[in-house]
Design a protein that fits this description.
Layout: H1 2-25, E1 27-34, H2 41-60, E2 68-75, H3 80-92, E3 98-100, H4 105-117, E4 121-124, E5 139-141, H5 146-159, E6 164-170, H6 173-188, E7 192-199, H7 207-213, E8 220-224, H8 227-239, E9 245-248, H9 255-261, E10 269-273, H10 280-293, H11 302-319, H12 323-334, E11 338-339, E12 342-343, E13 357-363, E14 366-369
Parallel strand pairs: 1-2, 1-3, 3-4, 4-5, 6-7, 6-8, 8-9, 9-10
Antiparallel strand pairs: 10-13, 11-12, 13-14
Helix pairs in contact: 2-11, 3-4, 5-6, 8-9, 11-12
């Protein structure tokens, strides 16, 4: 009898020990090193909403071959050092084979070598810097490169008759890459860049840079800025009486920027990878977002994050739940896939092969598509 009791006890202990592993095997974990605090948390909060929506939808349909997706979020605190720490933790502790990387090209590019070295897939849904995927074959993005956006912004400036402009840009990999792409294209079109002004992130006072950019009262100023920085700059320019046409890129195209800048943002225009919102895919996404969160203000780049989940899920379904399997399957999973942001087919550098660009404008306190 004692032997039987001992045997039962041993079996119970073994079963208890094995239970977490068994449960873990039933879950497909994906890492997400997002800014949930710090200067660009406004991006991370929106990304998380759209990723959670996609995961909820996939899981409701049975997950991936019967297994539920679980996102392991790690706060990268909006700076490169903590981004690296977050990615290392997801790799070594959570042992995920694929990670949704941080916003901000500099942040992402700081983590890319870590992922490549550990042979873990790292994907960006908002990084546009030209060199974003250069770290190696495990690095992907579902957002188009600035090699495409720069010429479109130059074309916008020339089409409005702005043949001489100063350029302001946030001094990081994204800002530098887009600045170079714009300047090269603009000069080829016959434009003249009168000044180039780099500025740091997270400042509360940009008056020195604004005075320099507005010297000579230029009719337009190109400003490659983020949400918070742009809001501060536009408000201070308004207070300083600077009257000019602001031309921006896609990173400033956010309801939050308009909310923070108020009337100072009125009339700001810029380029962005355009997403046709009249498609059935986008309408279904927008309706699902509204149902879950109570409003239809899609966060900036939220739709790209939503698509990133679906492309990744398709890759796991095809290639299996290993980093190498996901890496090999991603191009096939993305090929011809029509997400809410369009065709996600990759080019040879693991970036979207196709992208259309539109023009946005702040009108009556809202972001709209620009109409001539």
């Amino acid at each position: 009898m004692k032997k039987l009791a001992l045997l039962v006890a041993v079996i119970a202990v073994l079963a208890f020990a094995a239970a977490p592993s068994a449960r873990a095997a039933e879950t497909i974990k994906i890492g997400a090193a997002f800014a949930l605090s710090g200067s660009i948390a406004v991006y991370g909060e929106g990304f998380k909403k759209c990723i959670d929506l996609a995961v909820e939808e996939i899981n409701a349909k049975g997950g991936i071959k019967g297994k539920k997706i679980e996102i392991v979020y790690e706060d990268n605190k909006s700076n490169p050092k903590d981004c690296v720490t977050a990615v290392r933790k997801l790799i070594t502790v959570d042992k995920v084979p694929v990670i949704f990387g941080p916003a901000g090209s500099s942040n992402f590019m700081a983590t890319a070598p870590v992922a490549q070295e550990n042979k873990v897939v790292l994907i960006s849904a908002q990084g546009a810097a030209v060199g974003l995927t250069k770290a190696g074959e495990y690095i992907f993005r579902v957002f188009p490169s600035d090699t495409l956006q720069g010429p479109h912004l130059a074309k916008l400036a020339m089409s409005k008759g702005y043949k001489k402009v100063p350029v302001m840009y946030v001094n990081n990999d994204w800002g530098l890459g887009l600045k170079n792409a714009f300047v090269d294209a603009y000069k080829k079109m016959g434009g003249t860049v009168t000044d180039i002004i780099a500025y740091d992130e997270k400042k509360t006072d940009y008056r020195t840079e604004l005075l320099r950019a507005s010297k000579g009262n230029p009719p337009a100023i190109v400003n490659l800025t983020y949400i918070n920085e742009g809001a501060v700059q536009f408000k201070q320019a308004f207070e300083m009486g600077i009257k000019t046409q602001w031309l921006c890129g896609s990173a400033a195209r956010a309801p939050k920027m308009v909310e923070l800048a108020g009337k100072a943002a009125e009339g700001v225009i810029g380029t962005y990878p355009s997403v046709p919102q009249n498609t059935k895919q986008y309408q279904a996404f927008k309706e699902a977002y509204k149902k879950k969160y109570g409003d239809d203000k899609i966060p900036i780049f939220g739709d790209y994050n939503y698509d990133m989940v679906y492309v990744t899920a398709r890759a796991i379904e095809r290639g299996g739940y290993t980093a190498d399997g996901i890496r090999k399957a991603l191009p096939q999973a993305a090929k011809g896939f029509k997400g809410v942001t369009g065709d996600k087919t990759f080019d040879s550098e693991r970036s979207p092969k196709f992208a259309e660009y539109g023009i946005w404008v702040v009108k009556d306190g809202k972001i709209e598509d620009y109409k001539k």
